[in-house]
Amino acid sequence: MQRASRLKRELCLLATEPPPGISCWQSQNQLDELRAQILGGADTPYEKGIFDLEIIVPERYPFEPPKIRFLTPIYHPNIDSAGRICLDVLKLPPKGAWRPSLNLSTLLSSIQLLMVEPNPDDPLMADISAEYKYNRELFLQNAREWTEKYAGQ
Which residues form the active site (predicted)? Predict the structure, then answer.
């Protein structure tokens, strides 16, 4: 019951006051299955891209973080080919930083920030991380190509 009322509140807030470049909605009237879209930020290789995400809300939410993954392929050191995201707020302590006070809006904003500022020191994709660290131009070119190919309107 607590999960349902909290999710309804969060979705209502996301609908009325969404963070810039982020939208989120229920997938086919399933309260535990959501979809989100994040617009690629200006002055990033993801600019003009629209990235779709899947959000699975666990039974124990908010005491357990939602599982979020990219459905749109993205060239990024912290996001793997299955769309899984390496981000501390998506994991429970002690390895992660999830807290019940966090919400969907905060998580989606954190993912959007990760797109702007990758963390090459905690990569899921070692090869892309090395490229980001040591050959930034090639990384930017590849990320722009992927964005055009997979996330273009």
Answer: 86
Please give the C-alpha separations between residue 84 and each of 20, 23, 89, 152, in angstroms, as whole numbers: 23, 19, 13, 21
pLDDT for residue 83 is more than 90: yes
Q: What is the DSSP letter of 147?
A: I
Give the model's pLDDT for residue 1: 66
pTM over the 0.90 mark: yes
Q: Three-state DSSP class for 12?
A: helix
Task: Show the domain range for 19.
Answer: 1-151
Q: Compute CA distances 128 → 30, 84, 111, 139, whole Å.
A: 35, 15, 18, 7
Contact 89, 110 (CB under 8 A): yes
In degrees and rounded to multiples of 5, residue 33 shows phi and psi of -125, 115
Other beta carbons within 10 angstroms of residue 8's beta carbon come to: 12
- The domain total for the chain is 1
CATH of the domain at 60: 3.10.110.10
Report the chain's C-alpha Rg in angstroms: 16
Check whether 23 has a pLDDT greater than 80.
Answer: yes
Phi and psi angles of residue 53, each rounded to the nearest 5 degrees, phi first: -130, 150
3 state SS of 103: coil
Say how far apart CA 13 and CA 109 lie, in whole Å.
Answer: 14
